[in-house]
Amino acid sequence: MNTHEVVNQPPPLGDVDLHAHDPVLGRLVDEFDASWAQDRLSEFGRIAGTRETHELAEAANRHEPELRTHDRYGHRIDQVDFHPAWHALMDRAVSHGVHSLGWTEDGPGSQVARTSLMYLDSQVEQGHGCPISMTASVVPSLRMAPELSSVWEPRLLSTSYDPSFRPASEKAGALMGMGMTEKQGGSDVRANTTAAVPAADGHRLTGHKWFTSAPMCDAFLVLAQAPGGLSCFFVPRFLEDGTTNTFRIQRLKNKLGNRSNASSEIEFDETAGWMVGEGGRGVATIIEMVIGTRLDCITGSAALMRQSLTHAAWHVSHRSAFGKTLIDQPAMTNVIADLELETEAATLLMLRVAAMFDRAPHDEREAALRRIATPIAKYWVTKRTTAVVRESMECLGGNGYVEESPLPRWFRESPLNAIWEGSGNVIALDVLRALRREPHALAFLGDEIMLDASAAAIGQLAAAREMLETSENHESDARRIVECLARAWSSSLMARHTAFGELYDAGRITESHAMFGTLPHCDELRDIAGRAVPTLA
Ligand SMILES: Cc1cc2nc3c(=O)[nH]c(=O)nc-3n(C[C@H](O)[C@H](O)[C@H](O)COP(=O)(O)OP(=O)(O)OC[C@H]3O[C@@H](n4cnc5c(N)ncnc54)[C@H](O)[C@@H]3O)c2cc1C
User: Fold this and answer.
1) Best mutation site among 289, 420, 421, 479 for ligand 1, i.e. most ligand atoms within 8 A of its Cβ?
2) Angle between the 364-395 and 330-359 helix axes, to the nearest 10 degrees?
3) What tens digit of pLDDT does each residue of 414-441 get?
């Protein structure tokens, strides 16, 4: 008797063309002015979903970055070594312009095109997206220091990845990160104590940063207390004379996920920095970067949903139980269809926000909308992700829970986008702040929702408005308000861009079921579930 016959196990998921597989991406890219980028996205989608990418992702997370604080003679060197798989992923992202396309193609749809690249790039491995996102997002803040920007922008937008530890002037390309969070205050950056003292050339910074990711970047935007108040500083790893700036990497964080990426604690000691933006306006300056990385949090989360679901759908369409392929078992059809609706809604929110980034510079209405839409989508999509990844994992049964599967890695990754770049409460309170500062923004969002509003969406919008008018404690109601707006807006986008608006409403608004797989039964469930199943390239 053959005791080791393997039957009814799904074949390994081979190469998937992530662009062709996506049910909404290509269509929406056309709609949001980026049809010119379709060939580029298509080419990248074929690369981003290969077995090779999965292998690189696995290796980059298994062989974690290592900190070398000193050389063998005792000199401080403050360098981090990464596995070749990390460099391969970085090289691929940079050479395809995942960090730069939004600025190098400065025409209609350029941010939509870049966001779509980021979405494809972030599906299989997320850690390397951190320096990619920060480099892409730093451009508007850096432009507030035109002298620095004229020298550094060409370096940052270069499509050559150069990880060598040398002065940026000698390198083929450069990357940037940011340091805001301190021990005593992350969200409340006003509590920062790092001090910046004016010097003959720039300022000298002394203090610490409790979280600074990707510390091998070539330069950072850093918040510090200057005589005029909290200000934003440009801090390079090397000075103009080719010597190193003082940038002590004290240790690397031992994180739940995101393990391919290094996140560090930094100390500054008379570290040279140059002010960006006006003195005392540090938050207003760096927020231009943060709003970009917030869009990438939405993007990374939508990507995680899509890739987890792709694996779940592959598994259930190749495994049988109780006499049927799992995806044909009605309870499983419902789960996959429900996850597909959630993932499509997240992708629609992501692309609509990206379109606001394109249009905001020329359109006041889109600028006001962007101000509230980015945190609403950041709050909603990043928080929904963990539930989607968890349910996708369960679709694989026990196979989903073992470390040979990528699902545990994606599950560990899944809460992160909701924490950094503003945690949930901070983001919900930011929506309220934006509504106070941009009083028309709610009316603009309301107009957008009303373009394709179901009764359920109208009800959610009305509930948000009523809470805003009558709440006895707006902060206490902040999450309720944001959730109503997110549901109403998602419902309207689903009605406009898919045929599943009503089902979305039933699953998210009119019926109050807590879990996925609770859509009311209808004939469309099979077709919707089918949209999630990948075909091999
Ligand atoms: C892997 C990783 C990498 C990171 N990389 C970087 C980096 O590169 N650069 C950087 O600057 N930072 C980085 N961070 C830090 C991150 O941005 C902060 O952790 C985050 O902003 C929250 O700040 P905090 O940790 O100080 O928590 P706190 O600010 O103490 O917040 C704790 C909780 O309180 C809530 N809260 C805060 N204020 C209020 C309020 N007024 N009302 C109600 N609730 C409130 C928050 O929503 C949160 O849930 C990183 C974090 C992680 C996990």
Assistant:
1) 420
2) 160
3) 999 999 999 999 999 999 999 999 989 9
Query: Using CA positions, which residue lies closest to atom 39 of ligand 1?
Result: 426
pLDDT in tens, 207-262: 999 999 999 999 999 999 999 999 999 999 999 999 999 999 999 999 999 999 99
Of 412, 419, 476, 480, best ligand 1 pocket probe by most atoms within 8 Å of the beta carbon? 419
Can you say whether the dihedral through the CA atoms of 460, 463, 467, 469 is positive or negative?
positive
Helix (H) or strand (E) holding 222: strand 219-226
Phi-psi region for residue 78, left (φ > 0), alpha (ψ -120 to 50) or beta?
left
Mean pLDDT of the chain, nearest integer: 97
Q: How many whole angstroms from 287 Cα to the centroid of ligand 1?
A: 15
pLDDT value at residue 74: 98
Spatial distance between the Cα atoms of 150 and 153, rounded to a whole number of angstroms:
6
Q: Is 280 left (phi over 0), alpha (psi -120 to 50) or beta?
A: left
Output the residue whose Cα is nearest ligand 1's atom 5: 213
Every domain range in the chain assigned CATH 1.20.140.10: 284-531
Q: Is residue 335 scored above 80 in pLDDT?
A: yes
261 in contact with ligand 1, CB cutoff 6 A: no
Q: Indicate the pairing of strand 320-321 with strand 324-325.
A: antiparallel
CB 247 within 8 A of CB 207: no
Q: What is the CATH number of domain 19-280?
A: 2.40.110.20
- The reply to whether ligand 1 has any atom less than 6 angstroms from the CB of 474 is no
Distance between CA atoms of residues 250 and 68, nearest Å: 10
Q: What is the pLDDT of residues 268-303, one digit of tens each?
A: 999 999 999 999 999 999 999 999 999 999 999 999
* Residue 75: CB atoms within 10 Å: 10
Ligand 1 site, residue 260, Cβ cutoff 6 A: no
Long-range contacts of 165-169 (CB under 8 A, 24+ apart): 165/79, 165/216, 165/237, 166/238, 167/238, 167/242, 168/218, 168/219, 168/236, 168/238
Tens-place pLDDT, residues 78-133: 999 999 999 999 999 999 999 999 999 978 999 999 999 999 999 999 999 999 99
Range(s) within the chain of domains with CATH label 2.40.110.20: 19-280
The third-level CATH classification (topology) of the domain covering 284-531 is Butyryl-CoA Dehydrogenase, subunit A; domain 3 (1.20.140)
**Residue from 534, 49, 533, 513 nearest 332 by CA:** 533
What's residue 512's pLDDT? 80
Give 1's pLDDT tier (boundaries 50, 70, 90).
Answer: low
Residue of 211, 255, 414 to mutate, ligand 1, most atoms within 8 A of C-beta: 211
> Does 186 contact ligand 1 (Cβ within 6 A)?
yes
Q: Is the beta carbon of 263 within 6 A of some atom in ligand 1? A: yes
Instruction: Give the sign of the dihedral formed by CA 426, CA 428, CA 431, CA 435.
Output: negative
